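Predict fold of Long-chain acyl-CoA synthetase; 592 aa.
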Amino acid sequence: MTIKRLFDIPHYALETYPKTDMFVTKYQGEWKKTSTQEFINEANKISRGLLKLGIKPGDKIALITTNSRTEWAIMDLGLSQIGVVSVPVYPSISPEDYEFIFTNAEIKYCFLSDKDLLNKVTKVKHNIPSLQGIFTFDNVSGAANWKEVLDLGEDDSTQIEVEDLSNTINSEDLATIIYTSGTTGRPKGVMLTHHNIVSNVLGSIPRIPKKKGLDYKDTRVLSFLPICHIFERMLFYLFQYNGFSIYFAESIEKMGENVKEVKPHYMSVVPRLVEKVYDKIYATGSSAGGLKQKIFFWALNLISKKKTVSKPSGLQEIIADKLVFKKWREGLGGEIITLVSGSAALSTRLNLMFQNAGIPILEGYGLTETSPVISVNAFGKMKIGTVGLPLDNVQVKIQEDGEITVKGPSIFKGYFKNDEMTKEVFTEDGYFKTGDIGHIDSDGFLQITDRKKEMFKTSGGKYIAPQTIENLAKASKFIEQIMVVGDGEKMPTALIQPDFEFAKSWAMRNNLSIGSTPQEIAKSKELKERIEKEIDNTNEHLGNWEKIKKIELTPEIWSIETGLLTPTLKLKRKAIKEKFIDLYNKMYEHHE
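Predicted 3D structure, encoded as tokens:
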């Protein structure tokens, strides 16, 4: 069977890899399995129910869920097979952004997971003329439940209508509009066709390693990144295609628990999560006391010296692996084949460390506009510090100014209702401009050096690439977030959000009183001096013009909720600078 449209994938899975646990979600403390056949049956009910509600091909329906769950998967299939365009939305955005997206996309119905999201959408509902109804997955009193749509579609005598519609859907038809959260301005609607995403799934399959002897029936994935994000969503289709079971994690907070219950073979991660896992391992190991602590540091030291990835060799490495790194692997369930990392740059140091601890990470790169994978590392074809070889069906061309541009079947059709912006992001010869700066090395691996938009010039005319410096600095336990600034100024400086928890335990160990609230901690002279030492270490790896000359500590946590991070945890640089403008001015006032 050839796969041309997204809804062909589940049918292919049913034919090739039928399973009892295609999707598994935890409800009230119990994992509930949905088989491949049930998945397709339920999606057919949704399709029939929506047709009864008068929904037509080309209509837009919003899907929002706080945590990924089986209902989302059923909705996704139920919409796509009758030509309805799904508009998945981040749960964490503001009501104003909901209003903008729903109005811009002319959303007819919205399906969402819970009461909190219902309250958010209800706040702006009256401003959205196209919105005819909202359905919830949870039972929320007074709200319409999605089961009402399933019940409407219970009678399968109209299934022929669903099949007739499916047969008219072309691979070039629009499948979804994904609004990117942009670090500046209003969200943009990225239009992706069936062909865009399917070609990316098929192009990425060879990069995901399979384990010899592991049957598809027993292969498990733990999915916890937002499924509205194209990275997780493309993998969601890829895992279905491979016949792997997808377990949806309850939440990031319950990850540790879920990993132990599911014992996954695959997980996709963002660098921030890898950092958090490592911080946890480090905190446990460094506070073990006695011999355990000595062994932990000895093993860490051993692995930190390795500059390449290799299996444990020699007595010392084998002992370290048995005593220390085996526990790291067990902490991730003990059966991980690989973690797939995307969304931002992963620190080379951490990547090497995890690989050598027997936890392979495949780092890749892409954008929503590229459905998303442009390039990704693979087993046997890996270079740490790069984002891998471009996919076989994607052409990469580096422009004269270093910008990475791409062409291929997975490049989007344009921004919804915004031809002008669409024109701006393509070169004359049809390459999409990624906005990232990079190069292809002699072995064909793509390396990203910075975001074109985020680079800035000091008043001395020197270019600074802030992300590279920030990634180096974030290796410090003391630094949770850092933003390097200095556009048009004499020198670069940095705003830093300390890791407040780590700072507290550091202060306790050293009998220092630095207070307990972020406001108090950020004022601590001792902590600032200690973090300045960390920055001195970072500066050793930088050219003179890039060295951070001053820092200020911010008195609060940077988060999605405070509007300082995007839903994919990238820095909203403009918002951070505006919020802490007093600290910014303080760093530059003596250099008029």
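The mean pLDDT is 94.
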